[in-house]
Design goal:
Blueprint lengths: L1 H14 L10 E2 L4 E2 L1 E8 L9 H16 L3 E8 L3 E8 L5 H17 L4 H7 L12 E5 L4 H9 L3
Antiparallel strand pairs: 1-2, 3-5, 3-6, 4-5
């Protein structure tokens, strides 16, 4: 049993040795981790607001928020009415706290910018920018197909 288990573990590590070398695990005094998630925010009422200077200002606001946070945005890109993030975070942070921080602070700062009158034309009743929900998906180093194939070849 031990010999076959070691062989399986060895094969597992061999298959996943193709993982990106530049993405290293983060070590702390109590854990070693590699946590990433794909996060999507949508503009309230699916309004196509992320254009021109507002889009650039939102990007700089979000980068400023992450500079004072325990998570980092590896990649983010926006479409007209939504924005995608690839976020790396530590275990003591919840996804909900990351979402709350990004949404609350970006909304506050965008409303206190030069875009205030533009936003009043779209949201005359409340000072909002993002819809209430969000999409999140955990991301590992290996692709789902690689993991699926590995599991299917076991036993």
């Amino acid at each position: 049993f031990c010999k076959s288990f070691r062989l399986r573990v060895k094969n597992f590590h061999k298959k996943f040795s193709t993982m990106s070398k530049k993405s290293q695990y983060i070590s702390t005094n109590r854990s070693k981790h590699y946590l990433k998630c794909h996060l999507i925010f949508v503009c309230k009422y699916r309004k196509k607001l992320l254009v021109g200077q507002l889009k650039e200002d939102m990007r700089s606001i979000i980068l400023n928020i992450t500079s004072n946070s325990d998570f980092e945005i590896e990649v983010f890109e926006s479409d007209l009415d939504h924005i995608h993030f690839l976020i790396r975070y530590i275990p003591r942070l919840s996804i909900t706290s990351i979402v709350r921080k990004l949404k609350q602070e970006s909304t506050y700062h965008i409303w206190h910018s030069a875009h205030r009158s533009f936003l009043f034309n779209h949201f005359w009743k409340e000072r909002t920018f993002w819809s209430d929900g969000y999409f999140v998906c955990s991301i590992g180093e290996a692709s789902p197909d690689t993991i699926r194939q590995y599991i299917l070849t076991q036993g």
